[in-house]
Amino acid sequence: xxxxxxxxxxxxxxxxxxxxxxxxxxxxxxxxxxxxxxxxxxxxxxxxxxxxxxxxxxxxxxxxxxxxxxxxxxxxxxxxxxxxxxxxxxxxxxxxxxxxxxxxxxxxxxxxxxxxxxxxxxxxxxxxxxxxxxxxxxxxxxxxxxxxxxxxxxxxxxxxxxxxxxxxxxxxxxxxxxxxxxxxxxxxxxxxxxxxxxxxxxxxxxxxxxxxxxxxxxxxxxxxxxxxxxxxxxxxxxxxxxxxxxxxxxxxxxxxxxxxxxxxxxxxxxxxxxxxxxxxxxxxxxxxxxxxxxxxxxxxxxxxxxxxxxxxxxxxxxxxxxxxxxxxxxxxxxxxxxxxxxxxxxxxxxxxxxxxxxxxxxxxxxxxxxxxxxxxxxxxxxxxxxxxxxxxxxxxxxxxxxxxxxxxxxxxxxxxxxxxxxxxxxxxxxxxxxx
Length: 435
What we know:
Helices cover about 45% and strands about 15% of the residues. It is α/β, with parallel strands linked by helices.
Protein backbone atom coordinates (compact mmCIF):
# COMPACT_ATOMS: atom_id res chain seq x y z
CA UNK A 1 0.00 0.00 0.00
CA UNK A 2 0.94 3.65 -0.35
CA UNK A 3 1.33 4.76 3.26
CA UNK A 4 2.19 8.18 4.62
CA UNK A 5 3.43 8.86 8.14
CA UNK A 6 3.09 12.43 9.41
CA UNK A 7 5.91 13.21 11.83
CA UNK A 8 9.53 12.07 11.86
CA UNK A 9 9.88 11.83 15.62
CA UNK A 10 10.39 8.62 17.55
CA UNK A 11 7.02 7.04 16.82
CA UNK A 12 6.90 8.29 13.23
CA UNK A 13 10.36 7.01 12.31
CA UNK A 14 9.94 3.59 13.90
CA UNK A 15 6.51 3.22 12.28
CA UNK A 16 7.80 4.35 8.88
CA UNK A 17 10.84 2.06 8.84
CA UNK A 18 8.91 -0.97 10.09
CA UNK A 19 6.01 -0.53 7.65
CA UNK A 20 8.52 -0.22 4.83
CA UNK A 21 10.15 -3.43 6.06
CA UNK A 22 6.74 -5.11 5.72
CA UNK A 23 6.73 -4.16 2.03
CA UNK A 24 4.59 -1.03 1.97
CA UNK A 25 5.58 2.04 -0.01
CA UNK A 26 6.07 4.53 2.81
CA UNK A 27 6.51 8.30 2.74
CA UNK A 28 7.40 10.05 5.98
CA UNK A 29 6.77 13.80 6.11
CA UNK A 30 8.07 16.37 8.57
CA UNK A 31 8.25 20.17 8.61
CA UNK A 32 11.91 20.23 9.71
CA UNK A 33 14.02 20.30 6.54
CA UNK A 34 17.30 19.57 8.32
CA UNK A 35 15.83 16.39 9.80
CA UNK A 36 14.47 15.27 6.42
CA UNK A 37 17.82 15.98 4.74
CA UNK A 38 19.54 13.75 7.32
CA UNK A 39 17.04 10.97 6.79
CA UNK A 40 17.32 11.11 3.01
CA UNK A 41 21.04 10.48 3.51
CA UNK A 42 20.29 7.45 5.68
CA UNK A 43 21.14 9.07 9.03
CA UNK A 44 18.67 8.87 11.88
CA UNK A 45 18.25 12.00 14.04
CA UNK A 46 17.47 9.80 17.06
CA UNK A 47 19.25 6.83 18.57
CA UNK A 48 17.20 3.65 18.57
CA UNK A 49 18.82 0.21 18.25
CA UNK A 50 18.39 -1.12 14.70
CA UNK A 51 16.51 1.91 13.38
CA UNK A 52 19.18 3.47 11.19
CA UNK A 53 19.98 0.18 9.46
CA UNK A 54 16.27 -0.30 8.66
CA UNK A 55 16.10 3.22 7.24
CA UNK A 56 19.17 2.68 5.05
CA UNK A 57 17.92 -0.69 3.83
CA UNK A 58 14.48 0.56 2.83
CA UNK A 59 15.78 3.78 1.29
CA UNK A 60 17.97 1.59 -0.91
CA UNK A 61 15.01 -0.67 -1.75
CA UNK A 62 12.90 2.42 -2.55
CA UNK A 63 10.28 1.32 -0.04
CA UNK A 64 10.88 4.40 2.12
CA UNK A 65 11.01 8.09 1.28
CA UNK A 66 11.25 11.29 3.29
CA UNK A 67 9.83 14.65 2.28
CA UNK A 68 8.71 18.08 3.46
CA UNK A 69 6.28 18.39 0.52
CA UNK A 70 2.66 17.80 1.63
CA UNK A 71 1.41 17.16 -1.89
CA UNK A 72 3.96 14.37 -2.38
CA UNK A 73 3.03 12.93 1.01
CA UNK A 74 -0.76 13.01 0.96
CA UNK A 75 -2.15 13.21 -2.56
CA UNK A 76 -1.77 9.50 -3.43
CA UNK A 77 -1.80 8.03 0.07
CA UNK A 78 -4.19 5.17 0.79
CA UNK A 79 -3.44 5.13 4.49
CA UNK A 80 -2.10 7.98 6.64
CA UNK A 81 -0.66 7.68 10.14
CA UNK A 82 -0.55 10.79 12.32
CA UNK A 83 2.51 10.62 14.59
CA UNK A 84 3.14 14.26 15.46
CA UNK A 85 3.96 15.47 18.95
CA UNK A 86 1.42 16.38 21.62
CA UNK A 87 3.67 18.21 24.09
CA UNK A 88 2.70 19.02 27.64
CA UNK A 89 1.23 22.44 28.35
CA UNK A 90 1.80 24.42 31.55
CA UNK A 91 -1.27 22.91 33.21
CA UNK A 92 -0.28 19.34 32.27
CA UNK A 93 -2.80 18.96 29.44
CA UNK A 94 -1.78 17.96 25.91
CA UNK A 95 -1.04 20.66 23.33
CA UNK A 96 -2.88 19.72 20.13
CA UNK A 97 -1.57 22.45 17.83
CA UNK A 98 0.41 20.02 15.67
CA UNK A 99 -2.60 17.70 15.46
CA UNK A 100 -4.73 20.59 14.18
CA UNK A 101 -2.13 21.59 11.58
CA UNK A 102 -1.71 18.09 10.19
CA UNK A 103 -5.47 17.49 10.04
CA UNK A 104 -5.97 20.70 8.02
CA UNK A 105 -3.04 19.77 5.75
CA UNK A 106 -4.34 16.25 5.09
CA UNK A 107 -7.78 17.60 4.19
CA UNK A 108 -6.27 20.08 1.75
CA UNK A 109 -4.03 17.66 -0.15
CA UNK A 110 -5.80 14.29 -0.35
CA UNK A 111 -7.02 13.33 -3.84
CA UNK A 112 -8.61 9.95 -3.12
CA UNK A 113 -10.43 8.10 -0.36
CA UNK A 114 -8.17 7.51 2.62
CA UNK A 115 -8.06 6.11 6.15
CA UNK A 116 -6.34 8.32 8.73
CA UNK A 117 -4.92 6.54 11.80
CA UNK A 118 -3.90 8.55 14.86
CA UNK A 119 -0.85 7.13 16.59
CA UNK A 120 -0.12 10.32 18.51
CA UNK A 121 -1.22 10.12 22.15
CA UNK A 122 -4.27 12.38 22.30
CA UNK A 123 -6.98 13.26 24.85
CA UNK A 124 -10.45 11.75 24.62
CA UNK A 125 -12.44 13.27 21.78
CA UNK A 126 -9.42 14.31 19.68
CA UNK A 127 -10.00 11.77 16.92
CA UNK A 128 -13.56 13.05 16.55
CA UNK A 129 -12.13 16.57 16.26
CA UNK A 130 -9.69 15.37 13.57
CA UNK A 131 -12.62 13.84 11.71
CA UNK A 132 -14.53 17.14 11.91
CA UNK A 133 -11.58 19.16 10.63
CA UNK A 134 -10.96 16.84 7.69
CA UNK A 135 -14.66 16.56 6.81
CA UNK A 136 -15.07 20.34 6.82
CA UNK A 137 -12.14 20.97 4.45
CA UNK A 138 -11.71 17.91 2.20
CA UNK A 139 -13.19 17.70 -1.31
CA UNK A 140 -16.85 16.68 -0.87
CA UNK A 141 -16.54 13.68 -3.19
CA UNK A 142 -13.84 12.00 -1.07
CA UNK A 143 -14.17 9.82 2.03
CA UNK A 144 -11.71 10.06 4.91
CA UNK A 145 -12.25 7.82 7.94
CA UNK A 146 -10.35 8.57 11.15
CA UNK A 147 -9.22 5.67 13.34
CA UNK A 148 -7.70 5.72 16.82
CA UNK A 149 -4.64 3.46 16.63
CA UNK A 150 -2.45 4.20 19.68
CA UNK A 151 1.17 3.08 19.77
CA UNK A 152 2.81 1.05 22.53
CA UNK A 153 6.46 1.37 21.56
CA UNK A 154 9.12 1.48 24.27
CA UNK A 155 12.19 3.56 23.58
CA UNK A 156 15.18 1.26 23.24
CA UNK A 157 13.05 -1.67 22.03
CA UNK A 158 10.75 0.10 19.55
CA UNK A 159 11.44 -2.15 16.56
CA UNK A 160 11.01 -5.30 18.63
CA UNK A 161 7.75 -3.91 20.02
CA UNK A 162 6.45 -3.07 16.54
CA UNK A 163 6.95 -6.60 15.23
CA UNK A 164 6.27 -8.51 18.46
CA UNK A 165 3.91 -6.31 20.49
CA UNK A 166 1.34 -7.50 23.02
CA UNK A 167 -1.65 -6.05 21.15
CA UNK A 168 -2.80 -3.67 18.45
CA UNK A 169 -5.73 -1.41 19.37
CA UNK A 170 -8.09 -0.21 16.62
CA UNK A 171 -10.72 2.33 17.58
CA UNK A 172 -13.52 3.00 15.09
CA UNK A 173 -17.29 2.78 14.86
CA UNK A 174 -17.16 1.56 11.24
CA UNK A 175 -16.96 -2.26 10.96
CA UNK A 176 -15.58 -2.08 7.40
CA UNK A 177 -12.75 0.23 8.46
CA UNK A 178 -12.01 -2.00 11.46
CA UNK A 179 -11.84 -5.05 9.18
CA UNK A 180 -9.56 -3.19 6.77
CA UNK A 181 -7.14 -2.23 9.56
CA UNK A 182 -7.23 -5.76 10.94
CA UNK A 183 -6.22 -7.09 7.52
CA UNK A 184 -3.50 -4.44 7.23
CA UNK A 185 -1.90 -5.58 10.50
CA UNK A 186 -2.49 -9.31 9.96
CA UNK A 187 1.09 -10.07 8.78
CA UNK A 188 2.40 -9.08 12.22
CA UNK A 189 0.47 -11.93 13.90
CA UNK A 190 -0.19 -9.72 16.93
CA UNK A 191 -3.52 -9.91 18.81
CA UNK A 192 -5.88 -7.15 17.61
CA UNK A 193 -8.44 -5.51 19.85
CA UNK A 194 -11.22 -3.56 18.12
CA UNK A 195 -13.14 -1.01 20.13
CA UNK A 196 -14.75 2.41 19.88
CA UNK A 197 -12.66 5.53 19.32
CA UNK A 198 -12.92 7.02 22.81
CA UNK A 199 -12.09 3.73 24.53
CA UNK A 200 -9.00 3.38 22.32
CA UNK A 201 -7.88 6.88 23.33
CA UNK A 202 -8.27 6.05 27.04
CA UNK A 203 -6.49 2.69 26.68
CA UNK A 204 -3.24 4.44 25.78
CA UNK A 205 -3.36 6.88 28.70
CA UNK A 206 -4.53 4.25 31.16
CA UNK A 207 -1.76 1.84 30.15
CA UNK A 208 0.99 4.37 30.78
CA UNK A 209 -0.58 5.66 33.97
CA UNK A 210 -0.90 2.13 35.37
CA UNK A 211 2.74 1.32 34.63
CA UNK A 212 3.81 4.61 36.21
CA UNK A 213 1.72 3.65 39.25
CA UNK A 214 3.56 0.33 39.59
CA UNK A 215 6.89 2.17 39.51
CA UNK A 216 5.85 4.69 42.16
CA UNK A 217 4.35 1.92 44.30
CA UNK A 218 7.54 -0.12 44.35
CA UNK A 219 9.52 3.03 45.16
CA UNK A 220 7.22 3.65 48.14
CA UNK A 221 7.93 0.09 49.27
CA UNK A 222 11.66 0.76 48.79
CA UNK A 223 11.41 3.59 51.33
CA UNK A 224 9.81 1.20 53.80
CA UNK A 225 12.52 -1.39 53.15
CA UNK A 226 15.28 1.13 53.84
CA UNK A 227 13.69 2.02 57.17
CA UNK A 228 13.18 -1.54 58.41
CA UNK A 229 16.30 -3.20 56.96
CA UNK A 230 14.58 -5.23 54.25
CA UNK A 231 15.70 -5.62 50.62
CA UNK A 232 13.34 -4.24 47.96
CA UNK A 233 14.69 -6.66 45.34
CA UNK A 234 13.63 -9.61 47.48
CA UNK A 235 10.27 -7.98 48.13
CA UNK A 236 9.68 -7.18 44.44
CA UNK A 237 10.55 -10.72 43.42
CA UNK A 238 8.22 -12.15 46.05
CA UNK A 239 5.20 -10.08 45.08
CA UNK A 240 5.95 -10.45 41.35
CA UNK A 241 5.46 -14.21 41.64
CA UNK A 242 1.76 -13.50 42.08
CA UNK A 243 0.36 -13.81 38.57
CA UNK A 244 -2.17 -11.09 39.33
CA UNK A 245 0.74 -8.66 39.87
CA UNK A 246 3.56 -9.94 37.66
CA UNK A 247 7.25 -9.02 37.81
CA UNK A 248 7.35 -6.15 35.33
CA UNK A 249 7.84 -2.50 36.35
CA UNK A 250 8.69 -3.47 39.93
CA UNK A 251 12.28 -2.25 39.83
CA UNK A 252 13.01 0.36 42.46
CA UNK A 253 15.05 3.37 41.46
CA UNK A 254 14.93 7.13 41.00
CA UNK A 255 11.69 7.17 39.06
CA UNK A 256 10.32 7.15 35.55
CA UNK A 257 11.02 9.69 32.83
CA UNK A 258 10.99 10.03 29.06
CA UNK A 259 8.47 11.36 26.59
CA UNK A 260 5.45 9.28 27.65
CA UNK A 261 4.97 8.36 31.31
CA UNK A 262 5.34 11.86 32.84
CA UNK A 263 3.35 13.61 30.11
CA UNK A 264 0.58 11.04 29.83
CA UNK A 265 0.12 10.61 33.58
CA UNK A 266 -0.19 14.38 34.04
CA UNK A 267 -2.56 14.65 31.07
CA UNK A 268 -4.85 11.96 32.49
CA UNK A 269 -4.80 13.62 35.91
CA UNK A 270 -5.60 16.95 34.25
CA UNK A 271 -8.52 15.35 32.39
CA UNK A 272 -9.89 14.22 35.73
CA UNK A 273 -9.82 17.77 37.07
CA UNK A 274 -11.42 19.05 33.86
CA UNK A 275 -14.27 16.54 34.27
CA UNK A 276 -14.58 17.46 37.98
CA UNK A 277 -13.52 13.88 38.72
CA UNK A 278 -10.13 14.24 40.44
CA UNK A 279 -7.75 11.27 40.36
CA UNK A 280 -5.86 11.47 43.68
CA UNK A 281 -4.08 8.18 43.01
CA UNK A 282 -2.36 9.68 39.94
CA UNK A 283 -1.54 12.85 41.86
CA UNK A 284 0.25 10.66 44.40
CA UNK A 285 2.07 8.74 41.64
CA UNK A 286 3.43 11.99 40.24
CA UNK A 287 4.39 13.27 43.71
CA UNK A 288 6.30 10.07 44.54
CA UNK A 289 8.15 10.19 41.23
CA UNK A 290 9.21 13.79 41.79
CA UNK A 291 10.54 12.82 45.21
CA UNK A 292 12.48 9.84 43.89
CA UNK A 293 14.41 11.95 41.38
CA UNK A 294 15.93 13.94 44.24
CA UNK A 295 16.70 10.89 46.40
CA UNK A 296 20.42 10.63 45.45
CA UNK A 297 21.02 14.19 46.68
CA UNK A 298 19.49 13.36 50.05
CA UNK A 299 21.65 10.25 50.35
CA UNK A 300 24.78 12.10 49.21
CA UNK A 301 24.37 14.87 51.78
CA UNK A 302 23.84 12.30 54.52
CA UNK A 303 27.19 10.75 53.60
CA UNK A 304 29.30 13.78 52.75
CA UNK A 305 27.63 16.79 54.32
CA UNK A 306 28.13 19.75 52.03
CA UNK A 307 28.62 19.06 48.33
CA UNK A 308 30.06 22.49 47.67
CA UNK A 309 33.25 22.30 45.62
CA UNK A 310 33.18 18.50 45.45
CA UNK A 311 33.63 16.76 42.11
CA UNK A 312 30.61 14.57 41.40
CA UNK A 313 30.60 12.01 38.59
CA UNK A 314 27.06 11.74 37.23
CA UNK A 315 26.83 8.43 35.37
CA UNK A 316 24.09 8.57 32.77
CA UNK A 317 22.07 11.40 31.25
CA UNK A 318 19.41 9.56 29.21
CA UNK A 319 16.16 8.78 31.04
CA UNK A 320 16.82 5.06 30.42
CA UNK A 321 19.40 2.89 28.69
CA UNK A 322 19.50 2.36 24.91
CA UNK A 323 18.12 5.78 24.02
CA UNK A 324 19.47 9.31 23.61
CA UNK A 325 16.25 10.80 24.99
CA UNK A 326 16.76 13.08 27.99
CA UNK A 327 13.18 14.34 28.25
CA UNK A 328 12.07 14.25 31.91
CA UNK A 329 15.30 12.43 32.76
CA UNK A 330 16.07 12.17 36.47
CA UNK A 331 19.65 13.08 35.56
CA UNK A 332 18.59 16.60 34.57
CA UNK A 333 16.91 17.08 37.94
CA UNK A 334 20.08 15.86 39.61
CA UNK A 335 22.23 18.31 37.62
CA UNK A 336 20.03 21.20 38.72
CA UNK A 337 20.09 20.17 42.38
CA UNK A 338 23.82 19.43 42.40
CA UNK A 339 24.46 22.84 40.85
CA UNK A 340 22.44 24.51 43.60
CA UNK A 341 24.58 22.64 46.12
CA UNK A 342 27.73 24.00 44.46
CA UNK A 343 29.08 20.67 43.19
CA UNK A 344 31.52 20.37 40.29
CA UNK A 345 29.73 17.98 37.91
CA UNK A 346 31.25 15.73 35.26
CA UNK A 347 28.54 13.75 33.44
CA UNK A 348 29.10 10.53 31.51
CA UNK A 349 26.78 9.09 28.88
CA UNK A 350 27.64 7.00 25.81
CA UNK A 351 24.89 8.47 23.58
CA UNK A 352 22.83 11.28 25.11
CA UNK A 353 25.40 14.04 25.69
CA UNK A 354 24.44 16.14 22.62
CA UNK A 355 20.77 16.21 23.64
CA UNK A 356 21.64 16.98 27.27
CA UNK A 357 24.01 19.74 26.21
CA UNK A 358 21.22 21.47 24.28
CA UNK A 359 19.37 21.82 27.58
CA UNK A 360 22.18 22.22 30.12
CA UNK A 361 24.67 24.09 27.94
CA UNK A 362 28.19 24.34 29.32
CA UNK A 363 27.18 24.53 32.96
CA UNK A 364 28.74 21.09 33.54
CA UNK A 365 31.55 18.99 32.08
CA UNK A 366 30.73 16.08 29.77
CA UNK A 367 32.65 12.92 28.96
CA UNK A 368 32.03 9.78 26.91
CA UNK A 369 34.86 8.13 28.87
CA UNK A 370 33.46 6.80 32.13
CA UNK A 371 36.89 6.52 33.70
CA UNK A 372 37.66 10.14 32.92
CA UNK A 373 34.38 11.19 34.51
CA UNK A 374 35.29 9.25 37.67
CA UNK A 375 38.86 10.51 37.93
CA UNK A 376 39.37 12.42 41.22
CA UNK A 377 35.62 12.40 41.94
CA UNK A 378 34.55 12.42 45.59
CA UNK A 379 31.11 11.07 44.77
CA UNK A 380 29.55 9.04 41.93
CA UNK A 381 25.81 9.01 41.24
CA UNK A 382 24.38 6.41 38.86
CA UNK A 383 21.34 7.84 37.07
CA UNK A 384 20.97 5.55 34.02
CA UNK A 385 21.29 1.76 33.87
CA UNK A 386 23.56 1.64 30.79
CA UNK A 387 25.30 -1.69 30.21
CA UNK A 388 28.59 0.25 30.18
CA UNK A 389 27.85 1.17 33.79
CA UNK A 390 26.38 -2.16 34.89
CA UNK A 391 29.45 -4.01 33.60
CA UNK A 392 32.04 -1.50 34.82
CA UNK A 393 34.51 -3.35 37.07
CA UNK A 394 34.01 -2.13 40.63
CA UNK A 395 37.73 -1.64 41.11
CA UNK A 396 37.52 1.30 38.67
CA UNK A 397 35.77 3.29 41.41
CA UNK A 398 38.69 2.54 43.73
CA UNK A 399 41.46 3.34 41.28
CA UNK A 400 39.99 6.52 39.79
CA UNK A 401 37.95 8.24 42.48
CA UNK A 402 39.39 10.37 45.25
CA UNK A 403 36.82 8.85 47.58
CA UNK A 404 34.95 5.69 46.46
CA UNK A 405 31.44 6.78 47.44
CA UNK A 406 28.70 5.55 45.08
CA UNK A 407 25.01 6.43 45.12
CA UNK A 408 23.35 3.90 42.81
CA UNK A 409 19.99 5.25 41.71
CA UNK A 410 19.30 2.22 39.50
CA UNK A 411 20.53 -0.67 41.68
CA UNK A 412 22.99 -1.67 38.98
CA UNK A 413 25.26 -3.77 41.21
CA UNK A 414 24.55 -6.72 43.45
CA UNK A 415 25.23 -6.14 47.13
CA UNK A 416 27.34 -9.30 47.19
CA UNK A 417 29.64 -7.90 44.49
CA UNK A 418 30.03 -4.51 46.16
CA UNK A 419 30.84 -6.09 49.53
CA UNK A 420 34.06 -7.45 48.03
CA UNK A 421 35.47 -3.91 47.74
CA UNK A 422 36.15 -1.06 50.17
CA UNK A 423 33.43 1.13 48.65
CA UNK A 424 30.76 3.17 50.43
CA UNK A 425 27.64 2.25 48.53
CA UNK A 426 24.02 3.31 48.81
CA UNK A 427 21.29 2.10 46.50
CA UNK A 428 17.47 2.24 46.55
CA UNK A 429 15.54 0.10 49.00
CA UNK A 430 18.52 -2.09 49.92
CA UNK A 431 20.90 -2.19 52.91
CA UNK A 432 23.78 0.29 52.83
CA UNK A 433 27.38 -0.81 52.50
CA UNK A 434 29.86 1.38 54.36
CA UNK A 435 33.57 1.29 53.75
